[in-house]
């Protein structure tokens, strides 16, 4: 087998570890992502335009989401939504400030990642490759705000769990997904005291501050309105659970995907799709509970591998939030990049090999997502066979990644050595 000479590998490693080269790479990647976003225009920035309307309407009329009417996002999402409006005068200015905000947040997260360990720079390069694969959607949604928060929370989870929970809880009050990090950390605490000290207290402090401010602003029960906003939805066209209906279009022209002009998305129509969507409303929380339980069991069996279990648990939970979700927006894939980037930097020597196959798989999944949206979303909605197949394979990949993550968690627990198993069973 042909191998790269050791001297060449050393030079390549030294080159990739250069902070200056990483900075140049960061600028180049984000310049490309922004240029692509500008080229696609409203396709990418449509939601940002809606954010601008919410913010500008609130500033001009005093009527605010959450405070005065129900909203599809948690209360703290008002901060990143309103901030660009305070620094701009029109939609274009808002989009510029919004994009700069996302890039600055990602720059901070990338610096934290690169400085975390000796392998941090390699992980940062992988993260940049992931952003190229995912494409411009990263800067056009709130997920571009929360993905860097997930990344920071996971990087500091082992050494500073209270900070990790605080950062993840802030992210969860912007968009729910970062709460997966909190669940993973809670499941891996060794005692009730640790659970309270590391998870409950910092999470409660952040949540109390957010809910308290919302109540002071007059939100009332609307402070928690986000949890009831998805009930009336059916399957989004590109969601994992919609795959069967999407493929069925190739043989059955009566399967319909129509535009929902209330929530501005395309959904599968029909009684069967509605039944699947209703089932996902309870399957999703059950999946989260099941993964949390497996994560807790594995952490108890392998206290020597708790950092790895945290990363695996967070990855599995974030994947479950996509696979069991009736909403299947392309930007959701931004959630699964952070666990892989953090794992490349932090995984222990005996588990690093676990992460390279899913790292490649996530890059391919992100690339397929970009092909689906924005590149070929029109043909996908029109039922063109090639892109329907690409979407089906992308969704299958998400399921495989989820199953693989859960299996790795269970595998660590099953491989517990006798001393670890005895210690776990005795509660020491």
UniProtKB/TrEMBL annotation:
GO CC terms, sorted: plasma membrane
Topological type in the membrane: Multi-pass membrane protein
Organism: Isoptericola variabilis (strain 225)
Transmembrane feature ranges: 12-38, 96-114, 126-157, 163-187, 199-219, 282-299, 306-324, 330-347, 354-373, 385-407
Transferase recorded as keyword: yes
Entry similarity comment: Belongs to the glycosyltransferase 87 family.
Protein keywords: Cell membrane, Membrane, Transferase, Transmembrane, Transmembrane helix
Domain of life according to the entry: Bacteria
Keyword Electron transport: no
Protein name: Integral membrane protein
A Pfam family assignment: GT87
GO molecular function list: hexosyltransferase activity
Compartments, record wording: Cell membrane
């Amino acid at each position: 087998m042909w191998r790269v000479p050791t001297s060449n590998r050393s030079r390549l490693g030294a080159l990739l570890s250069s902070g200056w080269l990483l900075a140049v790479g960061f600028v180049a990647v984000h310049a490309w992502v922004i240029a692509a976003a500008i080229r696609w225009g409203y396709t990418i920035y449509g939601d940002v335009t809606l954010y601008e309307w919410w913010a500008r309407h609130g500033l001009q009329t005093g009527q605010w989401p959450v405070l005065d009417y129900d909203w599809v996002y948690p209360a703290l999402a008002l901060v990143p939504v309103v901030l660009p409006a305070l620094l701009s005068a029109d939609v274009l200015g808002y989009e510029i400030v919004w994009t700069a905000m996302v890039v600055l947040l990602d720059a901070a997260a990338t610096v934290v990642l690169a400085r975390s360990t000796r392998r941090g720079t390699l992980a940062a390069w992988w993260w940049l490759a992931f952003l190229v694969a995912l494409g411009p959607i990263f800067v056009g949604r709130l997920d571009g705000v929360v993905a860097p928060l997930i990344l920071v929370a996971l990087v500091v989870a082992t050494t500073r769990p209270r900070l990790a929970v605080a950062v993840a809880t802030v992210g969860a009050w912007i968009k729910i997904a970062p709460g997966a990090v909190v669940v993973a950390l809670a499941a891996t605490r060794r005692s009730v005291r640790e659970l309270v000290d590391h998870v409950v207290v910092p999470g409660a402090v952040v949540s109390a501050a957010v809910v308290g401010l919302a109540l002071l602003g007059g939100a009332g029960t609307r402070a928690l309105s986000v949890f009831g906003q998805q009930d009336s939805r059916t399957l989004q066209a590109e969601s994992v659970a919609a795959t069967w209906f999407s493929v069925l279009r190739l043989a059955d022209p009566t399967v319909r995907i129509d535009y929902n002009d209330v929530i501005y998305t395309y959904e599968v129509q029909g009684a069967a799709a509605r039944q699947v969507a209703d089932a996902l409303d309870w399957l999703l929380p059950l999946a989260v509970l099941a993964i949390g339980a497996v994560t807790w069991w594995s952490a108890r069996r392998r206290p020597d591998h708790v950092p790895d279990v945290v990363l695996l648990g967070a990855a599995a939970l974030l994947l479950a939030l996509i696979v069991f979700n009736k909403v299947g927006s392309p930007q959701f894939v931004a959630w699964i990049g952070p666990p892989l980037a953090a794992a490349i930097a932090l995984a222990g020597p005996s588990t690093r090999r676990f992460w390279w196959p899913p790292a490649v798989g996530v890059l391919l999944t992100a690339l397929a997502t970009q092909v689906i949206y924005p590149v070929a979303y029109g043909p996908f909605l029109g039922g063109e066979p090639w892109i329907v197949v690409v979407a089906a394979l992308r969704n299958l990949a998400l399921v495989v990644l989820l199953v693989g993550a859960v299996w790795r968690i269970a595998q660590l627990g099953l491989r517990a050595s006798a001393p670890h198993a005895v210690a776990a069973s005795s509660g020491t």
